[in-house]
Design a protein that fits this description.
four-stranded mixed beta sheet; about 35% helix; alpha/beta; 20 helices; single chain; about 550 residues
Length: about 550
């Protein structure tokens, strides 16, 4: 059996100019990065602004497990299947972070015969967008510390600095550091922190900004610290906005690549869904919607994270709404939620499936709350049995969700035809999209609404520090913003060990802060971290490149 990277390396790609032409883009509308990658030009983006027309299909999933669910693979395969049906289809995805590429999760190009290519370039550096985000984030940090060093005209309280440096790599040693050591010339000595680039507010702003003006307006509102009277100090106050925006001049423009079957794919932006809002850029989604009749996009991790944030943050802030929602599940994942260890998931086990399917049950119920037609797809594995598949199909139908088997990993677009047909039927239904909560609720009420309705919790428990922070944010006028719940992806609760559909739990909110430029309030729950670490056997150990420049071990 060929690996994902072997399949990708054997692909015969179309010139990106030809891919662009298939959706009405001329050579002047794109800026090529070699033969197979391009960015949309500013002129094309201006022309396409406000012209969205396509049906928008959101792909989400059950809680991820070590067995893997294949959400991106399904997204790509569904897009290829719709293209095979003669539909003018565009895919909209996030870019991969180097952290998971060298960690455990791997890249974000899909898998098997449902991938976007060039796979290696996408997973390693791509067009440099993440490096630009990292540079802009750290420029702001440098300007902040320099301001303090040069006399601290803004009277910044050095004990109340909230802006962190970032790096697009899993590096636990940088979570908590001390800077400025070595004498007066090296700056003010203080505690500092690193987060992974995909958790940076700069990344969130890149993905939510409509254009350069909006980007700069959002940058100016970023809160970096508080002064000694506890008033916010912003990036605008530090005069850093123009230089930061200059670093993102190219990064703000969506990237165009293709699937193995030459379906156009905009891949742009990459916030994680467990610690950020987990969606690709608004610009990419809207450009895709202006160019295609169908747009297939994904949101990170399960419906409790990326799905909820797509619907309650991205849609709310960008005037978008999905026309159908696809939930990806696997029989292996459901059996894992039923208590079966990873090594035994290939064996038929209907009892475990019946126990673990409550996880899928909750994800279906979650997405039905928004008034949009829901389709469940099983990402098929060779070890699945007919009895297991039939049980899941019947269960979904009883819940009022459509069902389709997906074989896109093995067969590409051909293996997604059944799913595409069910999605077509769902798009014919008249949905009525409604966000989970209104803007008028307090921040605490919004957090409780997400915890109760999406996670199934009894409520939230605020630490004393979070209570104080929440009160201050309300006083500063941020109470109308949506909430971005940072939570483990492995469970519906804030405890990664609680599988299935946990009951009788509360969600502990330990810290609350505002991403004023992005336009949401972040709540850190449980033990979730904004800078991951590498495992005992990280993927980096197995990645190599030969003398001809051919990369191996990347997945």
């Amino acid at each position: 059996m060929k690996s994902d990277i072997e399949i990708a390396q054997e692909a015969v790609m179309e010139p990106i100019t030809k891919v662009a032409e298939s959706i009405g883009l001329s050579d002047d509308d794109i800026e090529c990065y070699g033969k197979y990658k391009a960015k949309l030009s500013d002129e094309a983006l201006s022309r396409l602004a406000g012209k969205k027309k396509a049906k928008l299909i959101l792909v989400t999933a059950v809680n991820p497990t070590p067995a893997g669910e294949g959400k991106t693979t399904t997204t790509v395969g569904l897009g290829d299947a719709l293209s095979r049906m003669g539909k003018k289809t565009v895919i909209a995805l996030r870019e991969p972070s180097l952290g998971p590429c060298f960690g455990i999760k791997g890249g974000a190009a899909g898998g098997g015969y449902a991938q976007v290519v060039p796979m290696e370039e996408l997973n390693l550096h791509f067009t440099g967008d993440f490096h630009a985000v990292t540079s802009a984030n750290n420029l702001l940090a440098a300007v902040l510390d320099n301001h303090i060093q040069q006399g601290n005209e803004l009277d910044i309280d050095t004990r109340n600095i909230v802006w962190k440096r970032c790096l697009d790599m899993n590096d636990r040693a940088l979570r908590n550091i001390v800077i400025g050591m070595g004498g007066k010339a090296n700056g003010y000595v203080r505690e500092d922190h690193f987060i992974i680039t995909v958790a940076s507010e700069i990344m969130a702003i890149l993905c939510l900004a409509e254009d350069m003006k909006d980007l700069k307006d959002r940058f100016s509102r970023i809160i970096v610290a508080y002064d000694k009277k506890n008033n916010p100090v912003t990036a605008g106050d530090l005069k850093a906005v123009g230089a930061m925006a200059a670093l993102l001049k190219d990064a703000i423009r969506p990237n165009l690549i293709q699937t193995l079957e030459h379906t156009p794919a905009f891949v742009h932006g990459g916030p994680f869904a467990n610690i950020a809002h987990g969606c690709n850029s608004v610009r990419a989604t809207k450009a895709a919607m202006a160019l295609g009749d169908y747009v297939v996009t994904e949101a990170g991790f399960g419906s409790d994270l990326g799905g909820e944030k797509f619907l309650d943050i991205k849609c709310r802030l960008s005037n978008l709404q999905p026309d159908a929602i696809v939930i990806v599940a696997t029989i292996r994942a459901l059996k894992y939620n039923g208590g079966v260890p990873k090594a035994e998931l290939n064996k038929e086990n209907l009892d475990a499936l019946k126990t673990g399917i409550v996880n899928l049950e909750k994800h279906i119920a979650n997405m039905q709350l928004y008034g949009v037609p829901v389709v469940v797809t099983l990402n098929a594995f060779a070890t699945d049995t007919e009895q297991e598949t039939a049980f899941v199909r019947d269960f979904c139908n009883k819940m009022g969700a459509s069902f389709a088997l997906s074989e896109v990993w093995e067969k590409g677009g051909e293996g997604g035809m059944a799913l595409a047909n069910e999605v077509e039927k769902a798009l014919e239904k008249q949905g009525s999209f409604t966000p989970l909560y209104p803007d008028e609720l307090s921040l605490k009420e919004k957090m409780e609404t997400v915890a109760r309705k999406i996670y199934g919790a009894d409520g939230i428990a605020l630490t004393p520090a979070a209570t104080k922070q929440l009160k201050r944010l309300e006083e500063l006028g941020f109470g109308k913003l949506p909430v971005c719940m940072a939570k483990t992806q492995y469970s519906l609760s804030d405890d990664p060990s609680l599988l299935g559909r946990p009951e009788g739990f509360t969600v502990t909110v330990r810290e609350v802060y505002v991403s004023a430029g992005a336009g949401f309030v972040v709540a850190l729950t449980g033990d979730v971290m904004t800078m991951p670490g590498l495992s005992k056997d990280p993927a980096a150990y197995h990645i190599d490149v030969n003398e001809d420049g051919r990369i191996t071990g990347l997945f």
